[in-house]
Design a protein that fits this description.
With 315 residues, the protein is of the alpha/beta class. The protein has two domains: 112 residues, Rossmann fold; 178 residues, 3-Layer(aba) Sandwich (Rossmann fold), CATH 3.40.50. The chain is built from eleven helices and twelve strands. It binds glyoxylic acid. The site of glyoxylic acid (GLV) has 5 residues, from loops.
């Protein structure tokens, strides 16, 4: 039987889930922070498959039989940037039900703002019947969804249900039966009228630093930015400046260039910023096993996995 090593902070949850889904594979788990001695286990050296989120330094060099890495998430930027992973190794990704989760995240943060939940709570605490506290009407307001794959579309649908007019922004413009799609470069032209900008594209050379001072120069104080993609897509200094000079009203950030967000980051206590701990798309087995199962089966049967990421494209 072929071996699949699970090196993941929640390996105790993943190992039984994978073993149950495909009993024809031998599966064992380690924590990425286990000491290098534990990760030098001969069992790992024999494994042909690796399920991983953050690859501990030196791990892949110790796996000469490795042919397949299953990423424990949607974004593979960290794997593609890792020079220790030879190009011959197939890397596959899994986004489980991230689209659904992230649609909930975006809707929750947007509605908390437009329904003025904080102000309602404050009024309640003061036993005030605050009838002038009307919710903001989102009908017909524009939402821009940057990245329109399996995650962008469910977010777009949720926003449409809330009454918004949704536009998608993609690398290669294509006709879409549901939503108008535009080139990413044209996003700046939409910003002056937009109520919401959601980032949900993979981190690539084309999206790194995309939200910078130049882009935000077209923004305004009524614009909310939600980032569920990667922190590196936003230039933090430019974001803070835009909040100060009225080019952005609010930022809801689930991802950061450095995670956990360092304690001295000015984002923590900025009144215009909501910080959440990279939790908008929880990568739990229940949601993700259905994505991974076809390749687990191929792996068990000694066949090549399918759907490997395109390294040139970056996802
Ligand atoms: C999480 O950030 C993921 O890419 O799956």
């Amino acid at each position: 039987m072929r071996k699949l090593a699970v090196v993941h902070h929640r390996h105790a949850e993943w190992v039984p889930a994978i073993a149950e889904a495909e009993p024809r594979i031998l599966v064992r788990g380690w924590h990425p922070k286990d000491d290098p001695g534990a990760l030098s286990d001969p069992w790992i050296a024999d494994a042909e498959g690796l399920f991983v989120w953050r690859v501990p330094p030196g791990l892949v060099e110790r796996m000469p039989a490795l042919t397949w890495i299953q990423n424990g998430g949607a974004g593979v930027d960290h794997l593609l940037a890792d020079p220790s992973i030879p190009a011959r190794i197939a890397i596959t990704r899994a986004d489980g039900q991230f689209g659904l989760w992230m649609a909930r995240y975006v809707a929750a943060h947007l509605l908390a703002e437009t329904q003025r939940l904080d102000e309602c709570r404050r009024a309640q605490d003061e036993r005030t019947w605050a009838s002038p506290l009307l919710p903001e009407d989102l009908t017909g307001r524009q939402a821009l969804v940057f990245g329109f794959g399996r995650i962008g579309r469910p977010i777009a649908r949720a926003l449409r249900e809330l009454g918004m007019e949704v536009h998608g922004f993609v690398r290669n413009v294509r006709e879409d039966p549901e939503f108008p799609l535009h080139a990413q470069a044209s996003l700046r032209e939409f910003l002056p009228l937009a109520r919401l900008l959601v980032l949900c594209a993979p981190l690539t050379d084309g999206t790194r630093g995309f939200v910078d001072a130049r882009l935000l120069a077209n923004g305004h104080a009524g614009l909310t930015l939600v980032n569920v993609a990667r922190g590196e897509q936003v230039v933090t200094g430019d974001l803070l400046a835009a909040l100060e000079n009225g080019r952005l009203g609010r930022a809801v950030l689930d991802v950061f260039p450095s995670e956990p967000l360092p304690p001295d980051s000015p984002l923590w206590n900025h009144p215009g910023v909501a910080v959440t701990p990279h939790h908008s798309g929880p990568s739990r087995p229940r949601a993700m096993i259905p994505d991974i199962l076809p390749n687990l089966r191929r792996f068990a049967e000694g066949r090549p996995v399918e759907g490997a990421v395109d390294r040139g494209r970056g996802y």
